[in-house]
């Protein structure tokens, strides 16, 4: 691999890496980001119940970090 191609790959990798960086969150914006509708999982109880149903229907365990499976009586 020649030097020019190597430098090009390094520059592209750096550009892709830096494009994923988030901007700084201002102190007055933190209140907006802390609201319930901004959460990845807004309702933890609903997600837990969904995981229980999926685990018992699939008759398996794992994937959601729960134990047991099959009977729905974890």
Provide a descriptive summary of the structure in words.
This protein is mainly alpha-helical and 74 residues long. It has one domain. It is built from three helices and no strands. It has helices at residues 3-19, 30-33, 44-58. The longest helix is centred in the N-terminal third of the chain and has 17 residues, at 3-19.
**Pairing-aware structural class of the strands and helices?**
mainly alpha
H and E order = HHH
Rg value:
22 Å
Which runs of at least 5 residues are low in confidence (pLDDT < 50)? Answer: none
Overall pLDDT, averaged? 75
What oligomeric state do the depicted chains represent? Answer: single chain
Strand share of the residues? under 5%
Count the DSSP helices.
3
Tally of distinct domains: 1
Distance between the termini: 56 Å
Secondary structure: number of strands? 0
- Give the biggest beta sheet: none
């Amino acid at each position: 691999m020649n030097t020019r191609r190597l430098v090009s790959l390094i520059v592209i990798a750096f550009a892709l890496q830096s494009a994923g960086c988030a901007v700084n969150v201002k102190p007055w914006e933190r209140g907006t980001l802390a609201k319930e509708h901004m959460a990845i999982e807004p309702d933890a109880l609903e997600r837990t119940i969904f995981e229980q149903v999926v685990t018992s229907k699939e008759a398996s365990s794992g994937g959601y970090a729960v134990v047991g499976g099959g009977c729905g009586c974890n």
